[in-house]
Amino acid sequence: MNYSRISGGVSPAGRAVRSLCLLLMSWCCWVGSVSGQVTGTVTSGEDGTALPGVTIFVKGAQQGALTDDSGRFSIAAPADAVLIFRYYGFLSQEVPVAGQAVLNITLQPEVQTVGEVVVVGYGTQRKKDLTGAITSVSAKDFVQGNIATPEQLIAGKVAGVQITSNGGAPGSGSRIRIRGGSSLNASNDPLIVIDGVPVDNNGISGAANPLSLINPNDIESFVVLKDASATAIYGSRAANGVIIVTTKKGKQGDAFQVNFSTVLSSAQKTGTVAVLSAEEFREVVNEKGTPAQVARLGQATTDWQEEIYRTAYSQDHNLSITGSVPNLPYRVSVGYLNQNGILKTSNLERISAAVGLAPSLLDDKLRVDINLKGSSIRNHFADQGAIGSAVVFDPTQPVFSPDTAYLGYYEWLDPATGKPNTLAPRNPVGLLDNKSDESTVLRSIGNVQFDYRFHFLPELRANLNLGYDISESNGTVTIPAASAISFNRGGNDEAYTQNKLNKTLDFYLNYVKELNDEHRIDLMGGYSFQDFIRENSFTDYVDSLNNIYYKTQNTLVSFYGRLNYAFRGKYLLTATLREDGSSRFGPGNRWGTFPSVGLAWQIKDEAFLKDVSFISDLKLRAGYGITGQQDVLSDYPYLARYTLSEVTAQYPFGNIFYSTLRPEGYDANIRWEQTTTLNAGLDFGLANGRISGSVDYYVKQTEDLLSVIPVPAGSNLTNRILTNVGNIENRGVEFLLNLNPVRTQSLNWDFGVNVTYNQNTITNLTRVPDPDFVGIETGGIAGGVGNTIQIHTVGYPTYSFFVYKQVYDETGAPKEGDYEDLNADGLINADDRYRYKTPEPRVFMGINTQLTYKKLTLSTVLRASLGNYMYNNLSSNNGAYRNFSAGNNFLSNLVPSVLETNFQNNQYFTDYYIENASFLRMDNLVLGYALPGLRSDKIRVQVSAIAQNVFVLTSYSGLDPEIAGGIDNNFYPRPRTLSLSINLNFL
Amino acid sequence: MKSLISLRQASLTGILLVLLSTSGCIDALDRVPFVEITSATIYEDPANYKLVLAKLYAGLAVSGQQGPAGKPDISGIDEGFSSYLRQYWKAQQLPTDEAIIGWNDGNLRDYHDMDWTSSNEFVLGIYSRIYYQISLCNEFIRESTDEKLAARGIAGADAEAIRVYRAEARLLRAMSYWHALDMFANVPFVTEEDAPGAFLPRQAAPAELFAYIESELKAIEPELVPARQGEYGRADQAAAWMILAKLYLNAETYIGQPRYTEALAECNKVIAAGYSLSPNYRHLFLADNHTSPEIIMPIAFDGINTRTWGGMTFLVHAPVGGSMSPAEFGINGGWGGIRTTAAFVDKFADITGETDTRAMFYTTGQKKEIDNIFSFTNGYAITKYKNITSTGEKGSDAVGNFPDTDFPLFRLADVYLMYAEAVLRGGTGGDLGTALGYVNALRQRAYGNADGNVTELTLDFILDERSRELYWEGHRRTDLIRFGRYTGDAYIWPWKGSVKEGQAVSSHFRLYPIPSSDLVANPNLVQNPGY
Asked: Rounded distance, CA B252 to CA A187, Å?
């Protein structure tokens, strides 16, 4: 458990600090009162055991005391004083002494908080009233360690949510999938709402990941909305689920508190791609090569992969101050992160600041919530081409050449010209040292929310939220003219900028009424306006012809409403309706309607279960809803429009070059993609909450898929068009189980596991049903140009591998170019390919466990993925003797699979390279120790040692079995990271 | 408390304002592009018509609006591959004795192996290009009618110029339909009558398509600029005659009818128009070939202004590899891809180029026989296209990527050989003596003297001579089919039918298959026989 994160905001802790604040304010009032000694015992309300280490304060005074190992305490307090009992993981209590000398106190565990609220779209809901599939993860459960981007905080923590980092680069993004991908060509990313500002999913130039501009330390909680009854209130942007991020804030009555934390990390590669050693390579070339090729062998022995990686050190410091001057709770934080990547020269530096103010005015009738977050990142992007280049670069060549041309790096030269060979790989070390690819990105997200409770009608509340998300990127890529990387064009000197401005306005009215304890009605209706503007420019100082400018905008206007109705607190109904208009569609197809309904039955509250003590919670949920999708690359897909060519795509008439005007293909009838979700779930709690969990079954059917499909030739001004065709179905089961097998005075063990089974099937892809349709090929690979390895076909999962069935000889070695004639027509040709496996797992799971012994905590997070396959593109592209013998005046190293296959030419399309990439990974292992409080417990210190990416169990032959998309090539390896974290909390 | 009351009023006013602004925000959904221009305004300005016309020509050359790559015209295929010329060249040259390519790009190999299927992405590539071009032409033709010009108030010289542009657009459309007829025969048929949208074009039979191309070219002939009178790069009457001549010469293939007399008539018109042979054969394929008096219509390229990874960039880079010096080709590096087969090499008695200068082989470090298709050094290389000028200057792109060299789409030598062939095949309107003179004019240019002159002409000789003169210019497949040497066993060349020695292939490969993706998209289409 991390103290700072808890004290940052969860309600019990907040309440305690608030008390402390009151204590300070009433300082003068108590002076002069008569003191007596109060003694007693504090026990747990859950199991009756004594609680050691409970802090006891006299309200309004400075002195405090702690309970001993038997839970006993003794404190001097005036007879009219109020004592405050505080213990982590439990709700704080205030008890008036009222002249008593003995006080025996029972503290209730925090998990049983009644009335705990969860942030849902446009408001909050009591957790017990929820009808949808919603999971919240708060700061105390976040993944710890050297974490630069927010989404990694919940990796492996939520059933149905797959978070796959894009690699080990600093600030690298992640592919987030909630219950599988539901779209083909539109976005599959969930909507992310940060403090009420729905951010746009598209990337930010100059940032590896737009979320890397958010400091994870400022985040208080994530709420994941998974089924449509929860997400439909976000309508058009919710088809892939919604993640609501709430940042830490000050609360009314908070005492002044300072928190400082530091994480120091060291990261190392976990291995390298297997390639032939210099000796092995020499042997192969000597045996198989021509005399000319043998002559090209060098004298050196270079392990290129050792040359490009390093041990990378990182630091992350955060300082936050929370408090409250009367009626103005505040939180101010600053953070500094400097993360080095293991690929030499890669670096991310981030300075971030956040201010949160929550004044309340008009007798608390008007609450204002102001959040401002700003950050500045500086990136140095290492050329990731060096990773692939280090795999193939001839290991018999040295890093540096005695010849000082090309800045002294060894390079393959064209024998005829002495210039760098344009087909050969470049020196990997030279790529890292000589290419300077840097960016500075500023981003600010802010909102101001006015929440007004009407004087004349307290049940009615009006809420206005104004938000913005603005970013400014500036980047440069420079390469010296003498470097071989860009020698022919005289080096590189380019700059790019991007400005994004996204605005949000939300307004809603909320009416809550309880009628004679039987009915509770919570009605909300509102309006939303979102506008997205993006402006890009690119300047090439070496070749001014390449300069580009682009600007685009899209807008969403929405109306929405929600009814929550509870009958006797146990029969619950949520119904929502949203109407969205998108500027991406023509006036006739602009508006989409997205309804949902959710029902829940709190069975535990029924008479027949009320007294069954073994069952502490039982709730049945069912939900149905429709969500939309309009997030496509083009902002104007319905408009007939013309594009003027750049100066490098002109055409000459006579001696004059004319820029050309090209009509664009368009679908005037393009409209929303719709996803219908059915969800049924059961929440349960047994043995007083020590066993709890849930099971959900869902069916997500997406229709009118926004797909890029071939147009009937001649019927439009393009060969492929974005239109609404096709259906995809995702079906799955999610299972969540949390156990607390051991809970004693000094030892506690929590164990959580979440398992998701998801089956994705394309059910239609064409306007006119056609069983003979092969499918849409996708999944570009390295090797050749334009080669693809995957296909979307009706009846199969998306991105199924599309390959030939390899024939093997009697020794078990694959026979080159010999494939099974699957259609039995006597010919081996493209028609013999078949669909074999997919990159997506059938089952994925997260395992979290935490063991606490007194002040020591040991916790770990594991993730497993089963049934996912990978195309080993490194092997296919470097696993043939042709790689060194193609006759282009250079040698390329090979991967060891060539020794097994003896392939002369690359066999890109054989199923030999499709490998099972199921894995079990220990993401995180943390050992934490809470030092005894210093200075009367005014300073709390927590130290942790953290290991990330501890081990991976897999049968996959490549470096890492977890690569989004299932094609292994040029992957920035995930490092193993060891960190030390220190957290200081000054109360 | 006064301030509090005003605060309350302020918040109420705020709420009211929000509600009022709602209707205004709905109008905000009518977003229009900042950078692109909407069709509604583009044709109001007479100056824009020429820019749209330029796109119709550029559609043959570059692959998108960015140059060399970016904002591609067609998608689903690597943009560099997608260029019209590159696709056309591959479809017409790779399945012949003249060219073989060493790249492991998808099913590219199927071209030379002659075992492609209806899902071959390169067949789809040229098919898509043809229909993309036709659609763009249709759009312009639809938007440039006299009625529409009048309605937009465009008159006088502007209207006159646009009328010529429109004729050129019809010519370019006819040319693409001719390509469709030549390669696919039974194809979707769309004209300017069919506005873009979600409809299913009907399939036209070869006879209908033939008649349509013929009637279109005849109809626009008077509207086009007279031969050699227009701007370089634009089609004139001679371009229309060329397409007609080719249509008629291959009419037996296309529609089973001999039309050699008509072919001769068109050849005669071109010959009479005043074109002359370039004095030096090799200069026809260099960076300053736009000055050639022989080229009737080019596909133009430029190292600075007309850039692509397809087109001539492909034809200059891809044949360079092995020990060849890229600098001698005016480029920064070869792509080590295209060579030729021994069958073509053997068309020349002396391959050094010393006698017949059209023999442009590179043999150092190259083997004549091909054991491994993927090894560039297997098979002799060809040095025909270069990005240097006739005076030895490198092209304008300092980096050495993009050539200035234009593609000689139609040139006079082809007309001479078509004339001779049409006469030999019984066409009237020409004679053998003149034919012999034309053929010997070509040979005399090639030899530099009369040593290579011939005294009699046979059809077999014409086929070989066309190969010697016009190799790698996109004619070979059509020629082999016309002479019955393409499929079957009448003529075998290395790796035909995917075996080293070559073998017969089924006659259905004379036509390419309608791509399977279009059969799915358009149920009106019926596949070509044999697929």
From this structure: 52
Q: Which residues pair with B173 in a beta bridge?
A: none
Taking an 8 Å cut-off on Cβ atoms, the answer to whether B523 and A768 are in contact is: yes
- Give residue-wise pLDDT tens across range B143-183: 999 999 999 999 999 999 999 999 999 999 999 999 999 99
Alpha carbons B437 and A824: distance in angstroms, whole number = 55
A645 CA: distance to closest CA in chain B (Å): 4
Distance from CA of A729 to the nearest CA of B (A): 22
Q: The tokens of A241 are what? A: 């689920």
Q: Is A981 exposed, middle or buried (0-12, 13-18, 19+ CB in 10 A)?
A: buried
**In chain B, residues 280-339 whose CB comes closer than 8 Å to chain A:** 300, 302, 304-308, 321-328, 332-336
Q: What is the rounded CA–CA span in Å between residue A714 and residue A580?
A: 34
Q: Residue B147 half-sphere exposure, CB side, CA atoms within 13 Å?
A: 2
Cα dist. A554→A467, A470, A591 in Å?
Answer: 16, 15, 14
Most A-contacting residue of B112, B520, B525, B526 (CB-CB within 10 A), to test interface: B520
CB atoms within 10 A of CB A939: 14
What separation in angstroms does the CA of A263 have from each of A223, A260, A428, A934, A943? Answer: 26, 10, 31, 21, 10
Q: Distance from first CA to last CA of chain A, Å, rounded?
A: 18
Under a CB-based contact definition with an 8 Å cutoff, are residues A624 and A638 in contact? no
Angle between helices B156-183 and B206-220 (to 10 degrees): 150
Angle subtended at Cα B519 by Cα B516 and Cα B520, rounded to the nearest 5 degrees: 90
Q: Do the beta carbons of residue A790 and residue A799 sit within 8 Å?
A: yes
Residue A65 corresponds to which amino acid? A
Distance CA A974, CA A442 (A): 26
- For the segment B247-272, the average pLDDT, to the nearest whole number, is 98
Give Cα separations from B109 to A56, A755, A825, A902, B101 (angstroms).
Answer: 81, 46, 20, 21, 7
Q: Provide the whole-model pTM.
A: 0.83
Among A297, A20, A122, A47, residue whose Cα is nearest residue A891: A297
**Burial zone of B449 (CB within 10 Å; 0-12 exposed, 13-18 middle, 19+ buried):** exposed
Q: For residues A615 and A604, what is the distance between their CA atoms, to the nearest angstrom?
A: 7
According to DSSP, the residues that pair with A945 across neighbouring strands are A927, A980
Burial (CB count <10 Å: 0-12, 13-18, 19+), residue A808: exposed
Which residues numbered 485-524 in A keep a CB inside 8 Å of some CB on B?
A: 488-490, 505, 507
Q: Are strands B187-189 and B202-204 parallel, antiparallel or unpaired?
A: antiparallel
pLDDT grade for B23, boundaries at 50, 70 and 90:
low
Instruction: Look at B52 and A642 and tell me if their CB atoms are within 8 Å.
Output: yes
Residue A477's closest CA among A441, A436, A440?
Answer: A436
Residues of A in contact with B531 (CB under 8 A): none
B196 three-state secondary structure: coil
Written as one letter, the residue type at B404 is: D
CA distance B12 to B8: 6
For B470-487, write each residue's pLDDT tens digit. Answer: 999 999 999 999 999 999
- Cα A684 to the center of its chain, rounded Å: 28
Give me the interface pTM, i.e. the ipTM: 0.94
Beta strands in A387-491 (DSSP E): 436-453, 460-479
Could you give phi then psi for residue A956, rounded to 5 degrees?
A: -65, 135
Nearest-5° angle of CA A592, CA A598, CA A600? 175
> B274 in contact with A at a CB cutoff of 8 Å?
no
Of A654, A715, A885, the CB nearest to B197: A715
